[in-house]
What we know:
Blueprint: E1 6-10, H1 17-28, E2 31-34, H2 35-43, H3 47-54, H4 56-69, E3 75-78, H5 87-96, E4 97-103, H6 106-112, H7 129-143, E5 146-149, H8 156-173
Parallel strand pairs: 1-3, 1-4, 2-3, 4-5
Amino acid sequence: MKTRSNLVLIGMPGCGKSTLGRRLAAMRGLRFIDTDKLIEADQNLPIQQIVNLRGVAYLREVEASVLNRLDVQNSIIATGGSAVYSQIAMQHLAEQGVCIYLEISLATLMRRVKPSQNRGLAKLPQHPLPRLYYERLPLYQAVADITVNNNWPLTAVRLSILNRRINDYIKHTSIN
Length: 176
């Protein structure tokens, strides 16, 4: 049986998955994987172009497929914001790692994600950020092993506290 040696970061676009993921990977000596980059490599297109050319449903299919094929250990995995829509993919990731939900308020999200940014679904007018936020919130909460309030800038102290919370969780749940 495989161990849950990965840390899987979930949350809305702009919540800090990539920023925190890279820093946490460096701190823990783990590999960093951005699943949006894997999707782009799989499709040979940027995420925004996939959405624009093929649509939201297609992006979700590709994302689920890429996540289901992901078989890594000792990695920090930053998922796309919509990964949580695939129950099978999230179950697969949860079997391989600890799911960490980077929670941010809607106000923080609105400040961080600008309309001009290429943010996949979050950029489409038919998917306004407040609607996506409230639609996804219970999905993130349902799969999270650890929830981290990520409304503030990432400092060395906050990173150290998060690292300690992860270690405590792993120690007390006997998943390693």
